[in-house]
């Protein structure tokens, strides 16, 4: 699958970007990220214009980066402000500075034609920066193409088989889904409402519910990068009131940012925000550990699939069934985005 350019992608969790230099490759473009003294996140092309030494292997000096090879020095706009051995700085001595927006605790970078970058089009995940929620998060690199992670997240029936004992129970695979595509806004919705389900350990231990539950999974995928899973957990038979707060239920907002790194590698940024037991560190520790384990189960499976796909003859025919409706819709919207972006490197 090709990449969709002229799009915003998550390059890091906000907490990953500090005064140290951080290397990330997004859509095949090497980036160096850091934070200025004023707290502004910066993303520059990670190749010195002189002899292409990675700036991420270099040294930060104040708000500038001093190339570790011969000392070309760049400011946060990517402009070279010092070259060794001469006064005159060549006019072309600059590296690309990528448009960056930090929002909802995520660091978004624009990959493509910078004139088309509009921060208003970045999809939101407000729970991640809302003090009424407690958030755990992480990032797992995959040795697999990003389309495999999109497929994986769009079809949660795999929870029953791949994540049994954590988040999977028989009802997930057994309950049919409904899929809806908002063509205009380019969003895929997949809903699975389980009205009488076993409570998996992930929710039994974090909510304290004993017995069977009502478990709703409402997915919103905003291609290419942002995936939201609104998870509603309540004792069996408890439904949201027609008006007012749904305060007898537990809500987990599960966020994934799916960022292609190279053709065969992907960043899996994940976060779990909850509106219950927000001050309970032991619940945070448990959910962090559990979701990490679940993510690593997916990583192991997708890395295997990547090797299978890389070795197979062309034109292998997949067989799709009802559970794949959301994933197929996602593929179609992604293909549309790939077709609408501009080609070529950023300026
Ligand atoms: S490669 Fe950076 S200064 Fe020479
Ligand atoms: Fe999974």
From TrEMBL:
Residues 8-109 form the Rieske domain. GO terms for molecular function: 2 iron, 2 sulfur cluster binding; metal ion binding; methyltransferase activity; monooxygenase activity; oxidoreductase activity, acting on paired donors, with incorporation or reduction of molecular oxygen. Pfam families: Rieske (PF00355), VanA_C (PF19112). It comes from the Bacteria. Keywords: 2Fe-2S, Iron, Iron-sulfur, Metal-binding, Methyltransferase, Monooxygenase, Oxidoreductase, Transferase. PROSITE patterns: RIESKE. Gene3D superfamilies: Naphthalene 1,2-dioxygenase Alpha Subunit, Chain A, domain 1, Rieske [2Fe-2S] iron-sulphur domain. GO terms for biological process: methylation. InterPro entries: Cholesterol_7-desaturase (IPR050584), Rieske_2Fe-2S (IPR017941), Rieske_2Fe-2S_sf (IPR036922), VanA_C_cat (IPR044043). This is Vanillate O-demethylase monooxygenase subunit. It comes from Micromonospora matsumotoense. The lineage of its organism: Bacteria, Bacillati, Actinomycetota, Actinomycetes, Micromonosporales.
């Amino acid at each position: 699958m090709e990449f969709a350019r002229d799009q915003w992608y998550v390059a890091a969790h906000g907490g990953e970007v500090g005064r140290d230099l951080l290397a990330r490759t997004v859509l095949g473009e090497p980036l160096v990220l850091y934070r200025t003294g004023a707290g502004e996140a910066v993303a520059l092309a990670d190749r010195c214009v002189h002899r292409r030494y990675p700036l991420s292997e270099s040294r930060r000096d104040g708000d500038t980066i001093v190339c570790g090879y011969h000392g070309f020095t760049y400011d946060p706009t990517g402009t070279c402000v010092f070259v060794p051995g001469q006064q005159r700085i060549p006019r072309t001595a600059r590296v690309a500075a990528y448009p960056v927006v930090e929002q909802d605790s995520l660091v978004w970078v624009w990959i493509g034609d910078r004139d088309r970058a509009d921060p208003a089009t970045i999809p939101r995940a407000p729970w991640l920066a809302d003090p009424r929620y407690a958030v755990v998060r992480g990032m797992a690199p995959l040795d697999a193409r990003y389309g495999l992670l999109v497929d994986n997240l769009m079809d949660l029936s795999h929870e029953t088989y791949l994540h049994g004992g954590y988040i999977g129970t028989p009802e997930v695979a057994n309950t049919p889904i409904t899929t809806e595509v908002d063509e205009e806004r380019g969003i895929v919705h997949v809903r699975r409402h389980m009205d009488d389900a076993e409570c998996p350990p992930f929710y039994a231990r974090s909510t304290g519910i004993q017995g069977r539950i009502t478990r709703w999974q409402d997915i919103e995928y905003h291609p290419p990068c942002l995936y939201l899973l609104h998870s509603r957990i309540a004792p069996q038979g408890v439904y949201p009131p027609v008006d007012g707060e749904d305060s007898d239920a537990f809500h987990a907002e599960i966020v994934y940012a799916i960022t292609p790194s190279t053709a065969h590698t992907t960043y899996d940024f994940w976060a779990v925000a909850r509106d219950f037991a927000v001050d309970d560190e032991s619940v945070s520790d448990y959910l962090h550990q559990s979701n990490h384990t679940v993510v690593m189960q997916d990583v192991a499976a997708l890395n295997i699939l990547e090797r299978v796909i890389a070795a197979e003859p062309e034109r292998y025919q997949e067989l799709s069934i009802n559970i794949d409706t959301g994933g197929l819709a996602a593929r179609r919207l992604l293909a549309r985005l790939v077709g609408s972006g501009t080609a070529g490197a950023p300026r």
